[in-house]
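Morning run. Coffee first, then this:
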Amino acid sequence: MFDGPGRFYKGNLHTHSTRSDGVLDPQEVCRRYRERGYDFLALTDHFVGRFDYPITDTSPFRTDDFITILGAELHSGATDCGELWHILAVGLPSDFAPSNTPEFKPIADQETGPQIAKRALDAGAFVAIAHPHWSALTQNDVTSIESAHAVEIYNTGCDVDCDRGYGFIALEHLLDKGRRLSLCATDDAHFATDDAFGGWVMVKAGENSPEALLEALKAGRYYASQGPDFHDIVWSTDSVTVRSSPVSSVILQAPGIPTAVEHGDGLVDTTIGLGRCAGAPWLRITLIDADRRRAWSQPYWRMDDGSYAAAAG
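And here it is:
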């Protein structure tokens, strides 16, 4: 990702407008992200009958330097705790067929969560399991979704409003089963509280277009952040070197409890020995800056020769 062509584009994959339960109209939502320096936005209103199953057309609000991608937050079927599934789908066609979901509660004779996720993926969308902690997803729930590219591991709205914003346990259950998913951070802003601009993705693409961004998202050529930036990640047989914006901690995580860490002031070129993490089937990296904001790499998978490489899908 760091060596390939193109550049990084900052974007949010999950937000809402007055087309569903957001406070601001779609044009104003797009304006706010553009003014905050975002390169792209997916406005993902709730795909339920109460709102006439919206796939909000944001194409009129695109500019030369700001792109939108059509999408929705899909709902259908019951999770183990009896609540409705929330599936993030970015890059949906405008004629994606409605589910049988008149309200925010599961009913008989509707698609399951895994079924609507598969339908979205088959329609060409980038699909993510939304806010697994907020949704109280069980291990059985998350493993049932076989048609997904990613897990939403940070959601600002869920963090601000109920302290259930992180989804790493759900992701790691899937990684431990060999599922090569990526991870994404979003803000899920409704603009009724201070829920905007707290989490985003940095996508490496050849151009800022819906097609190029979607291709890069599906391939896992991006990282997630609340503030810090990755500049490069270089693996050797016994260490990893991380180049970044100035941070206070660089943490290497492996399955189970093994980790390795380097702390300091203004770390920008940090080499960490793999230590107990050596030989793990997957590894990932977290940056933490002086303000305790984080950034997260994609999982890197151990290759047959013992090296590590990112691989999503």
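The domain at 7-225 is CATH 3.20.20.140 (TIM Barrel). Good start to the day.
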